[in-house]
Amino acid sequence: MEFSSKLLENAVYEVSQLPGIGKRTALRLVLHLLRQPESQTLQLITALGNLRAEIKFCKSCHNISDVEICEICSNPLRNKEIVCIVEDVRDVMAIENTGHYKGLYHVLGGKISPLDGIGPHDLTIEALIKKVKEGTVKELIFALSATMEGDTTNFYIYKQLNGFDVKTTTIARGIGVNDELEYADEVTLGRSILHRIPFENAIKS
Ligand SMILES: [Zn+2]
Q1: pLDDT tens for residues 149-200?
Q2: What is the distance between the alpha carbons of residues 85 and 125, in angstroms, rounded to a whole number?
Q3: pTM
Q4: Which of 62, 152, 188, 200 has the smallest number of CB atoms closer than 10 Å to its CB?
Q5: What's the fold here for domain 68-204?
Q6: Ligand 1: centre distance to CA 96 (Å)
Q7: Interval between CA 64 and ligand 1 midpoint (Å)
Q8: Statement: 6-54 belongs to CATH 3.90.105.10
């Protein structure tokens, strides 16, 4: 792609680094930003800058938050004995949208994936085990997507829990294999949480 301006080329390059955005789409977006009022573009830049500078991860569940302990963890109405293990903030949002879950979460920050160089220590698994050791958690719900990486991660955590007095369950699979949680419709996902099954049964089948 031949550019008449180095400034334009740089902006297009940076935008094209985003997932799913090719050079052509990047050019279209950048030209759009140029056409709209400057104040609007500045609002976008400010929002992204603030996000990077001020975003926090909840000290307890590791979800993205504006404060040290997120609103879910600090809500006295939530059941602190049940913890739902999810991959990232999108899963928390999807499950919250169902309105069927009143426990807490633990956000792993990914799944174990040797091909992508992601091992157990790159995730928040140690913090999860520590939480279980403290003794308040009575049930852990595995709610990772039903992919090979999701299953590997579930099983790794399950093995780490050996010897602890904690019930492990997994969300019922109305959600098909390889479906990401965030794409499941709210009714299906809500049902999956209500009709969760013991994790032992899931690994036998
Ligand atoms: Zn939290």
Answers
A1: 999 999 999 999 988 999 999 987 655 555 666 666 777 778 788 878 888 8
A2: 10
A3: 0.81
A4: 200
A5: Dna Topoisomerase Vi A Subunit; Chain: A, domain 2 (3.40.1360)
A6: 13
A7: 8
A8: no
